[in-house]
Amino acid sequence: MRKMLKLGGRIFLILVVILSVLLTVKLIRRTFFPRSTASATAARGPTLLGAKVSVPGFDWSQGEYTIVLALHKKCEFCRLSAPFYQRLVREMSGRADTRIIAALPHQVDEGRKYLDELGVQVSGVHQVDFKTMGIAYMPTILLVDRQGTVTGLWAGKIPEKKEDRALSLLRRDIP
């Protein structure tokens, strides 16, 4: 009987350890690898390149190019990308032919507040439905021409060591 109790105790301890490891892994994945906040399938992301997109209340033809920052306030990668967006705005804002806007699924006032918290100043904030736009990953940067066609697409957080390359590609794609 004593052996049975001892064996049962060991089995219980092993189960507790396994459960603890599984919960720890889940917590780490949620914290450091957040899922996309959009409900569109991942396969739709690349198909957006060359597609026409629309943002309610925004007229693409008012400028040669528009850079769209698609963000979500619950996206950790969006928050971590704030220094890059600040740099992007600084470097691209002097161009008369290019505008930078933010597209978020939140109310406009809520979106402005979020961008203020990030220290990212854009020329417009628009509430959008990411699924309707075909955006599957957060954050996403779109380069859109005056006809509303996506000519450049960067999905996900751009690694720090690739930020210079991303900015040079943006500059290259905007003649």
Q: So, CATH architecture of the largest domain?
A: 3-Layer(aba) Sandwich
For this structure, the CATH topology of the largest domain is Glutaredoxin
Q: Terminal Cα separation, in Å?
A: 82 Å
Order of helices and strands: HHEHHEHEHEEH
The largest sheet, given as strand count, sense and whether it forms a barrel, is: 5 strands, mixed
Shape: elongated
| Helix amount | 40-55%
Q: Are there runs of 5+ residues with pLDDT below 50, and where?
A: 35-45
Judged by helices, strands and strand pairing, the structural class is alpha/beta
What topology, given as strand order, has the largest sheet?
3-2-1-4-5
* Total domains: 2
- The CATH superfamily of the largest domain is identified as Glutaredoxin
Mean pLDDT: 85
Describe this structure in words.
- With 175 residues, the chain is an alpha/beta fold.
- It folds into two domains: 1-33; 44-173, 3-Layer(aba) Sandwich (Glutaredoxin), CATH 3.40.30.
- The chain is built from seven helices and five strands, in the order ααβααβαβαββα.
- It has helices at residues 2-32, 44-47, 76-80, 82-92, 108-118, 130-133, 163-173; strands at 65-70, 98-104, 124-127, 140-145, 150-155.
- The chain has a five-stranded mixed β-sheet.
- Strand 4 and strand 5 (150-155) form a beta hairpin.
What's the topology here?
Blueprint lengths: L1 H31 L11 H4 L17 E6 L5 H5 L1 H11 L5 E7 L3 H11 L5 E4 L2 H4 L6 E6 L4 E6 L7 H11 L2
Parallel strand pairs: 1-2, 2-3
Antiparallel strand pairs: 1-4, 4-5
